[in-house]
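Lab notebook, bench 4. The sequencing result for the construct came back, and we need a structural model before the next group meeting so we can plan mutations. Quick request posted to the team channel:

Model the 3D structure of this chain.
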Amino acid sequence: MKHLIIYALLPIVCLCLAPRQLKAQADVALQRYMELTLDQVIATAIDSSLNSMLAQNQFLASYWQYRSYKAERLPSLSFSSTPIQYYQTFVKRYDSQNNIDLYKQQKSIYSSAGLRAQQNVVWTGGVLSLETNLDFLRNFGMDTYTQFSSVPVRIGYSQSLFGFNSFKWSKKIEPLEYERAQKVLVYEFENIASTAITYFFNQAMNQMLYEMSVVNVAQCDTAYQTGLERQKIGNITQADLLALKLNAINARNRMENTKMNLDKSTFALASFLRYAPDTQFNLTLPTDIPSLTIAPEEALAYAKNGNPKMQELALNILRARQNLERAERSRFSSSVSLSVGFNQVADRFKDVYSDPLRQDAVSVSFSIPILDWGRSRGQINMAKSTLNTALISKEQAEEAFEQEVILSVKDFNMRYAQIISAHEARQVAELAYEATYQRFLIGKADVNTLSIAQSRRTDAQQSYISAIANYWAGYYAIRKYTLYDFLKGRPIDISIDRILANKRRK
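Done. Here's the predicted structure in token form:
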């Protein structure tokens, strides 16, 4: 009876589960087959690729470093405390009556708490502070007593005299470091876009070759069958027939090879975009190619102002000057510390803040090396050499960079004409092949003419895709150099808030 009930309910359960299974299968099928354009591949790569994640995390490290620098320029408030400190030990004491030293047992409990506010002074390199403290001490034993000590308020200032001012140099370097970090992020995104272009057109090329190889297999089979029919009436030689058969065999071999290459490029593209390994793509080649001409002088101006490599060279010089000043000012050290406030000691807590006494402290210290065997001079000379190296390296790098940008722009300006020429050649090669193929079917073209037309059609199609790939690769290379979008006429920007929001969600 139980089995009958199960068998009776089984169809109902299957009907209930079937829509969900069909929907799951549809979702899997949708996930594994994607139609993408070049812009979509670039956007996905910038948003989801591992390279993008790495670039964003490197930027965030610089972002938090800059936030830390900004925080150092603001007032800070800290609380310090020793909740309890217990001692039980023997201490040496002098007995004045017997004129001897004795060891006596001592037990004590100590506790303290304090607040300290401080502000770094950028222009002088000093630290201005405001603090308050309260201490408690209780001794046990023969001399049991309790004491409270307070510092209601104390204002102090300390700084190095004629020394190295790290705050001043941080003010010069840290904002430039953060600005460079933002430009590096844009640069890396453009680099990712260039990589995406390579993957896209490699996949598009293999996709085109495979589709053409499938058509070629069918046409070579048809040509071979036509040759067999023509042989029956003596309209084709045995050598031509064997050539047609060889063409059919080679066409199948090429189809297998192109399928293998297509599978490899498909897997590589899916891995780069972080899709499922079995995702299949149908890529759409960009057809709206803008006729864009970029002035080399304009691109060079944007590159000098926007490229992070140029900014890194300037920062290297700034860091070298910082190290030189640090070496020069570290030959001797001197400092001053001033403080004024109030303090009081009492046996009861209610008295510790009554009638506080004035507390002043002034401290001046200095250290001058008398004999260091040329150590300070060596550090200074080393810092000077580093600065000179940075200056020369900047000049050399700028010359090489200028040449690279100008040559890239000139090369790109010829790409559009190459696309037009390749497009025209592709159309001519396609028409020539179709005409030759039809002429062959009616016996007015030989095998060699058909093979040549087929080879020219494949070469023309490859040249057309390569021309488009070179155009967009060249354009994004210039974008990477200049961090400027010449199609939209504006600098390339990123949303820092969006990156921070994405990291919070993850």
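The longest strand covers residues 100-120.
Will bring this to the meeting.
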